[in-house]
Amino acid sequence: MINIKVLEVKSEIGAGTRGASLGPDAVKIAALDFGSLYFKKEKTIEVPNENRVLFEQVKQPHAKRIRGTINMYTRVSKFVKKTLHSNHFPIVLAGDHSTAGGTIAGIKAEFPNHRLGVVWIDAHADIHSPYTTPSGNLHGMSLAVSLGEDNIDNKINTLDDTTVELWDELKNIGEICPKIKWKDLVYVAVREVEPAEADLIKKHRVRNFTVNELRKKGVDKAAVEILSYLDHCDLIYVSFDVDSMDPKISMGTGTPVPNGITEKEAGNLILRLVRSRKVCCFEIVEINPTLDKENQMAENAFEILQKVSNQLNNVL
User: Fold this and answer.
1) Which end of the chain, N or C, is less packed with Cβ atoms under 10 Å?
2) Full strand arrangement of the beta sheet holding 88-94
């Protein structure tokens, strides 16, 4: 039986739509509605957030609230590292997807000599940089941070010196940059990609299991192929953005994209992945109950969370 620790990261400073910081509490409400004692049984700890900066003027328009994001990365990294060091399995319930870069930094801080594979289940590629972003929202840059990627070839923004310095600081948190390699990244259900990101995906031949491919092959076969593709990695981190699922399931996320996977497909895929002993961390992000009806997205996410936890306790 493995020891699980749930880390609550109620941060939304990397998003453009408000409400994602309420996601972890929405999942707790879903647990109560299901009559579950999950949050009594599992150890939980909350990482302090920087949401106060939402009320301050944006000073870096191409990397909004980046100073607060640096603080969040540093904190999340320390909490993840400490959790792993104590031989617990971190399950991260986060607000927006920007702090996933801090999760990756924490894994690398604890295992600096291990090669880390990433399974990114998401509608979006999240490999923009301040040089290429059309929005300036850092939840679209978390993988670029971890890859140490500027994508200067597709530059559309001119940055001031302060933004450049802060971006470099963000990439170098933990004094390891890059933290992951392109060939160690696998996308699942990514379907809304902008030209600057598409260029990088093509250049580095990033593997993307599309929704159609997932359905054609079936979840079990896709999971086997994902794990086989990352077999050279020592550890694997699974990041699940709920907008990977189709909006028909629920609109409770900030950037919904049509033609996504179902809750059943997402849950079965994740369950199959976490059977691998290489999987060292699982994260759920971007639940936004302010955009939802009757807390449907959080209920879907909680069902997946509960099944994953049972899988970890029973198999590993």
Assistant:
1) N
2) 43-47, 3-9, 88-94, 279-285, 235-241, 116-121, 185-188, 207-209
Question: CA 79, CA 63: separation in Å to the nearest integer?
Answer: 24
pLDDT in tens, 8-63: 999 999 999 999 999 999 999 999 999 999 999 998 999 999 999 999 999 999 99
Task: Name 192's bridge partners.
Answer: 124
Secondary structure letter of residue 97 according to DSSP:
G
**What is the model's pTM?**
0.97
Q: Would you tell me the crossing angle of helices 100-110 and 66-85 to the nearest 10 degrees?
A: 40
Domain with 160 in it? 3-315
Any idea what the CATH number is for the domain that residue 26 is in? Answer: 3.40.800.10
Sign for the pseudo-dihedral over CA of 201, 207, 209, 213: positive
Number of domains in the chain: 1
Longest distance between any two alpha carbons in the chain, whole Å: 53
Q: Which two tokens stand for residue 26?
A: 């929405």
